[in-house]
Design a protein that fits this description.
Distance between the termini: 53 Å
Radius of gyration: 19 Å
Structural class: mainly alpha
Mean pLDDT: 92
Number of helices: 3
Length: about 120
């Protein structure tokens, strides 16, 4: 039981770090977008840039929800001495793992889409 608890805690810390990386990368996207908007760009691209801004904001929401779930799991992990708490912690970990995988996949698609678009539409930036 103690080994499983330590494994869950290690996964929890790792996931918090990886979530911070996603958050930092999403900030980097928004800064890149701000740099583009501060240039003399073709105004016909404005709709597409707004589309990406919307996707960045949706990613912020997904990250915030996941951060909240991870925070809740931290409370569960803190109360694990009872066997039923360990079961709850394992179930929580599995749910968060699925959500994190989904958010990571969405992020990866956003990363590819945005940088492909930027290289194509704004090679000078």
């Amino acid at each position: 039981m103690k080994d499983k608890l330590e494994e869950l805690r290690a996964q929890h810390e790792s996931r918090k770090y990886l979530l911070k990386v996603l958050e930092d990368e999403n900030i980097r996207f928004k800064l890149k977008l701000a740099r583009i908007l501060s240039t003399d760009f073709d105004r016909r691209e404005l709709g597409r840039l707004e589309y990406f801004q919307s996707r960045f904001l949706k990613m912020d929401e997904q990250i915030a929800l996941l951060r909240h779930e991870i925070s809740e799991q931290q409370g569960i992990l803190a109360s694990v001495p009872a066997k039923e708490s360990l079961k709850e912690a394992i179930e929580s970990e599995q749910m968060i793992d699925r959500r994190f995988t989904m958010v990571q996949q969405h992020f990866d698609v956003l990363d590819v889409d945005f940088y492909h678009y930027v290289r194509q539409a704004f090679p000078q930036v």
